[in-house]
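User: I'll paste a sequence; please echo it back and then give the predicted structure.

Assistant: Echoing your sequence first, then the prediction.
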Amino acid sequence: MAEAILATPHRSTWLVCLGPLTNAALALSTHDKLADHLGGLCFMGGAITHHGNMNSSVEFNLFQDPEAAKMVIEKFGATSLKDRLVMIPLDVTMTALSTPKFREHVKRNTGPVCVRGWPANSDLPRIMHEILGAAANRAKNFPVPLRHVAPAEQGLCTALHDPCAVLYCRNPSLFEVKNWHVQVFFL
């Protein structure tokens, strides 16, 4: 991974982490030039004011490897990745929802999720609709009360956790960015 990133133009590549930060911490600590070379590092994880999904304050990805999270956030986030480390916490992802209406727009390639330039016979909208529907069906087994969702739609929606981190790298202007001092504590 590090060699591939270092082969790209300086500050042109973002590292997107959608799980525990183990591999990012290892790569950053074993390749001295990697952090400076990256355009940035964006990870889906943590919670600022939102209730955690592992306990009252801890999100799954950071829970799985808190030592790696501490290294990436506190060491590299304060030095070589300063101002280029982006955390997409549950506070954000729990407001980005795949609702039944959203999934229908995806299926028909209409409305606010319309992708211009797709061939009329493309299977991608149908495939994305099926993936999002499967995620929503799976979420029914793990009900989480979702803010901003009508009671009748509870259990029919799922949060788009990982897509938010990817979307930030593609179009950061869609997000309101706040600077926070974040620390990882071990309990």
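The longest strand covers residues 40-44. The radius of gyration is 18 Å.
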